[in-house]
Specification:
homodimer, alpha/beta, Enolase-like, domain 1, TIM Barrel, nine-stranded mixed beta sheet, Mandelate_racemase_C (chains A, B)
């Protein structure tokens, strides 16, 4: 690619007032205002890179401040100077000698790192004129390997093992690509089962979901056990017992309680139990899995590849739920997807929020094309909120994500939305709903 | 206690320019400017509570901003309203429904939580007219138990198990207190072995340390293996083979490399190997411990009680290095100290930085008086920097911390120091060394 220099970075604190409609409500997150720390990388070529990290409202300013600082490491640099030695670049962010104490590689600073690295990939893909999944899928094996930081994970996945996985995916590539182009990637819907929804609303949304072709439905649990079961049976009455229900407790329980509560929910025949306990509890998840006999899913709060490595090593999970933003963007997710493949665990990404669906469809397409080579037991989460703010929103057909065709990482938000929902000075927050 | 209301909170971003002297340099942290997000709780009684969380310079503003927000949960509240149901109060901070997404219970927001909760304990102890260790040691068992959040740890330590440990400590309490009052709590020095120090400086500092009565010396490693050994043998030449050396790699290595490097360092007869790999790697530490045969220590970057729980459950550590600030202050450390006791692992706190020595001496005294009941294999870290900024700095005699006698948590910094080193508007940063 021609020499392109990043000349300026802009950071925006964006907040959407979703808490007013109980959108996104669950056992732990009662009133989220879906938000994002958003950055735009301007270049001397005119092409921009956009990236964001998803947050829930208050505290987005902290991530935006961290992101503002981290952008100082890209302004003035060439794109190829970054992408030619991506690991070295990423370490300038994650090993920043004073900032690092605030993590390392977790929380506010890592969320900010994710936004910046994703913005660079968006720029990279636009410059190459390809949607991100295509850029990734067509990268030579050695280029992919050079973008992955094996530090702290090489006891679980060596570069040679990763190379073997990537090389083996050459076989059948064209057929898989044709399949994705025709049918898209399987998905599930979380839109019907939010915590704050009434029985009527759940029934209506289940029926609409079935009519639209959905076969996998997620239900938020973690409230009163009888009430959880009651809501679960409402969903079962609507969708029957052939379609799949996944239950999600959003970290509500301790380990012992999670075992009991998960067993209680077995009568719903859940396809997986998601986030039964604290997201840091690797050994706890392994024990819940062993003692409940229900498939266990987690990952949306798993803060880096070292934690995912251990979830896999300890046999904690049946389903690996990557998140596009919580870890340090595309590169760290490539590592996690490859580790999951090595351990034979399907990746079913976390999505929803703001832009997570737009992002993660690219990673799943790459997973299918270059890593797992199968769609068995794989579904991407889908939530039908806030897509109207994106220039190239996801396209869903019959419960599947259709392959994105526009160059980039699909994450650009319309300027009008950015101006309206910028916090606290956007027109929505300043004029329409002042504090 | 009489009704005291918190009327106002002030937050300060404090930065000391330690990087100019290679103070605190190690294999990973090259140029720390020891810093703190500092808060002062003002009350209608005139008594203040002071608390801080230790940081390394850049990014302290993020923690200060988070702390500023969290103080909104204490202003207007009574002290007893907080301390009578401390768990409920702590959860208003850690479960804040939008902020929580940025953790949970890790990174910037958890560091800020630590500063605030520590400030409350400082206030509590001042109001009671006792140094914190004495307040804690004299609290009834049930009061201690009510201050501990057992959520997410009750699979490892139940309230009944904690109660049994605390009740058993009644026996011999007076003798242990007399011992602490006469001799103090054993310590080790890190001041001689920083990464950036020359051979001459190491030799001189070792000799001075011996003359002062030190018997345990920490050496930073993680550089070139031959150089690590050379520096280690310099220390051994100075202190002999009866005194103890602890080596500290500050997370430099991957798991496999750590096993090899730790084995190589065995010729120094290290008493422990500290932070051989990534701090999140519970299973990795367990493997390094098994395969190197060297005692393993970690904890200063361990971000909450769920992670400490697993380090103990997995058999990852021989030495539990609590930190006063990284977890959510006193309460979470009480839980960790009790878990360590249950698993039979000695607590040897991390200290140094700004105020960590001042803080943690209180927790160790409580550990001895009410939990472990022994000093065997227990030492508190000591680093001889920045104590001059504290109203009641630690007092060291013959390699031991002397019991603090002043009411509170010993963390108040002189107003003149706060004004000089406030960032970026303090006189040091604004006038003496402008950016």
């Amino acid at each position: 690619m021609s020499e392109i220099t990043i000349t300026r970075a802009r950071v925006i604190d964006l907040r959407f007032p979703t808490s007013r409609e109980s959108i996104g409500s669950d056992a732990v997150n009662k009133d989220p205002d879906y938000s994002a720390a958003y950055c735009i990388l301007e270049t001397d070529s005119g092409v921009e890179g956009h990236g964001l990290t998803f947050t829930l409202g208050r505290g987005t300013d902290l991530v935006a401040s961290a992101l503002e600082y981290l952008t100082s490491f890209v302004v003035g640099r060439t794109l190829s100077g970054i992408t030619d030695d991506f690991v070295a670049f990423n370490r300038t962010l994650t090993d920043e000698s004073q900032f690092r104490w605030l993590g390392p590689e977790k929380g506010v600073i890592h969320l900010a790192t994710g936004a910046l690295i994703n913005a660079i990939w968006d720029l990279y893909a636009r410059v190459e004129g390809k949607p991100l999944w295509k850029l990734l899928a067509e990268l030579p094996t050695e280029k992919i390997l050079s973008a992955i930081d094996f530090r702290y994970i090489d006891d679980a996945l060596t570069p040679d093992e990763a190379r073997a996985i990537l090389d083996a995916s050459r076989e059948g590539y064209a057929e898989r690509l044709a399949l994705l182009e025709q049918e898209g990637y399987p998905a599930y819907t979380t839109s019907a089962g939010w915590f704050g929804y009434s029985e009527d609303k759940i029934r209506r949304l289940c029926r609409e979901g079935l009519a639209e072709g959905w076969t996998h439905f997620k239900l938020k649990v973690g409230g009163d056990p009888a009430e959880d079961l009651r809501r679960g049976h409402i969903v079962r009455e609507e969708i029957g017992w052939t379609n799949k229900i996944m239950v999600d407790a959003n970290q509500k329980w301790g380990v012992l309680e999670a075992i009991e509560k998960t067993r209680n929910l077995k009568e719903l025949d859940p396809w997986w139990m998601e986030e039964p306990t604290n997201p840091d509890d690797i050994l706890g998840h392994a024990r819940i899995r062993r003692e409940s006999g229900v498939r266990i899913a987690t990952g949306e709060h798993c803060h880096n590849r070292v934690m995912f490595k251990q979830l896999l090593q300890a046999g904690s999970i049946d389903v690996c739920q990557i998140d596009s933003c919580r870890v340090a963007g595309v590169n760290e997710n490539l590592a996690i997807i490859l580790m999951a493949a090595k351990f034979g665990v399907p990746v079913c990404p976390h999505a929803g929020g703001v832009g997570l669906c737009e992002y993660v469809q690219h990673l799943s397409a790459w997973d299918f094309l270059r890593v797992s080579t199968t769609l068995t037991d794989r579904v991407i989460e889908y939530v039908d909120h806030l897509h109207e703010h994106f220039l190239t929103p996801v396209r869903i057909r019959r419960g599947r994500y259709l392959l994105p065709g526009t160059p980039g990482y699909s994450i650009e938000i319309f300027p009008a939305s950015r101006e309206r929902y910028a916090f606290p000075h956007g027109t929505y927050w300043k004029n329409e709903h002042p504090a």
